[in-house]
Design a protein that fits this description.
homodimer, alpha/beta, TIM Barrel, eight-stranded parallel beta sheet
Chain lengths: 345, 345
């Protein structure tokens, strides 16, 4: 484990996952860093100005290193062929008393601008999901001595990351909450969801870079077990969702505390990309409609207003309740420091 | 780990899974037993006479203890409402040059008769899947000092087994090959497939009986890791499929050696019960037909002749190529003794 701690300049080999959508507040990232683990700003969907502001706020609260998480490819998409899906979503909007959906959708993710901010702010670690950064971006980050962490769901993806110059691989097991890191969603299939004991075994046996295990991890014993299998460290998302410092809304927190181990499903209903969440009305009704979800990030953008209104009203029916299979073990809120302490490292 | 070895009177805490359908030859079971692990006769689908003969053959080759695996509930079913599915299967039969499917199906599993054989033959360990044995059967087996091992896919199922008097629980992770052990297939859902690091953690934290981890296990490191998480021992199926002593046919063996980690899917196409197999033509074509699979064991009985003919012709297209996610790590045939030695315990 020593090499991971040394590369990342942290005390314990635990990473707080860079969950997007307002979860990773500056207070959470700073508290994790202060506890000796690696805090991460979930900068997917953020624009460059917001990212800059978040980085500055973290820096006001800690002088320890922390990471920024990005989607590896720029989300640049637009679509006018969305009428059928709007027809599925509009009844939810009616129920939530918000206006009907738009006739066209546009998404921009400002990836290049965010990389410039990361360079200006001297961020030491960048983690990415959904693919491999461009050689241009990798070159710029490497020139600035940034450590690159890439998420892989199988050996093939991990090899692509290593070949492109990534330093560390996150092995995302099928147990993990939120989006599957699968590079090419068009070839996504059952077999893309490998259990962590298989994935960590395969990556650590075939690669020489450090491996971070992610998915369903909640306890010290699991970390010790994954270390024995070949992981250098672990990444936890779901447990930090109920950290007192996290931006998770009240209804979502309660759903996490109430959920049982078997309550999560993998769905494309929210974003068009397979992702693990606690099952709810939105998932069931979108999946039961005969309408196919639109590709990521179009579906994600379309469902944004519905999810936001559900959150604002404090109900869980139409929120994306991302959660890993370890959610059954969550029974209370804790501070980030308490969570890290309980991992006993 | 000591308690498991002590209860089962074996040397190392490894169990060869009781795979049904002619895989667990007497030579395999005896070789596993002679190597100090627990060999298991897969007696699902066998009648009592065949089981008796198999037991006697194992006893001729070893005086070490071994187990018999049963389905926990008698498979007693018949159906005449099978025309639609026969319509899907008949083109396969045509291709395989066997006669068209029957108009009605009947299945009997002779569970009571097999339990009588087990008692007569003084078998020390019985393992079951798909539910809980009747109190009458449990009473008879316990009176004969038989150790009972039950397979569970979640905490609720494990508690039912323990409450009924089972001594040991097999925690079947989503990684596992072959049939999911899910008790009630009508309520089967995504959440019924828990990663092993989550399931072992949950069962070992909530139950006092020994826990055996099963699914995707191929290496000593994985065993050490699962022990750290809370398992007392492990059960391996897929790795023993390529044991030289196993009854696995040549084409199936080659498919196991050739398959990659991502090649397995969970399907109801073969038996009506969710099960993990290497994806092939049969799965794709049955799933792409608009016809729903019939319930287990009707679907299983209906597809039997097709699978048998495919096996006889040495082709994999229409065989049930059961395999766990660890299949990618299989690259050669070995003796049972070599497999157990490689687990290094």
């Amino acid at each position: 484990m020593d090499r991971l701690v040394e590369i990342l300049q942290i005390k314990i080999p635990v990473i707080q996952a860079g969950m997007a959508g307002g979860i990773t507040t500056p207070s959470l990232v700073a508290a994790v860093a202060e506890s000796g683990a690696l805090g991460t700003i979930g900068a997917g969907y953020m624009n460059a100005e917001v990212l800059k502001s978040e980085i500055k706020q973290v820096k006001q609260q800690t002088d320890k290193p922390f990471a920024v998480n990005l989607f590896a490819t720029n989300l640049q998409a637009s679509s006018k062929d969305i009428a059928e899906m709007q027809h599925v979503l509009n009844p939810f909007r009616h129920e939530l008393e918000i206006k009907a959906g738009k006739e066209s959708i546009e998404v921009t993710d400002y990836l290049q601008e965010k990389i410039e901010v990361i360079l200006q702010e001297d961020i030491p670690v960048v983690s990415t999901a959904f693919g491999v950064l461009s050689q241009d971006s990798i070159g710029k980050l490497k020139a600035n001595h940034v450590t690159l962490i890439g998420m892989a769901t199988n050996l093939e993806e991990a090899k692509q990351l290593v070949d492109a110059g990534y330093d560390i691989i996150v092995a995302q097991g099928c147990e993990a909450g939120g989006h599957r890191g699968t590079f090419d969603v068009n070839t996504y299939k059952d077999g893309c969801n490998l259990g962590l004991i298989v994935l960590v075994q395969e990556l650590s046996a075939n690669l020489s870079v450090p491996i971070i295990a992610a998915g369903g991890i909640h306890t010290k014993k699991q970390i010790e077990g994954l270390r024995a299998i070949g992981a250098d460290g672990v990444q936890l998302g779901t447990r930090f969702l109920v950290a007192k410092e996290a931006g998770t809304n009240r209804a979502y927190r309660q759903a996490l505390i109430d959920a049982s181990t078997a309550d999560t499903v993998i769905t494309k209903a929210f974003s068009g990309r397979p992702a693990r969440a606690i099952s709810n009305r939105f998932i069931k009704e979108v999946e039961n409609s005969s309408v196919a979800t639109l590709p990521f990030p179009i579906q994600n953008e379309m469902t944004k207003d519905v999810r936001a209104a559900s959150k604002k009203l404090g109900i869980t029916d139409f929120q994306s309740l991302w959660a890993g299979q370890g959610v059954g073990a969550i029974d209370k809120e804790e501070t980030a420091a308490e969570i890290i302490k309980s991992l006993g490292m």
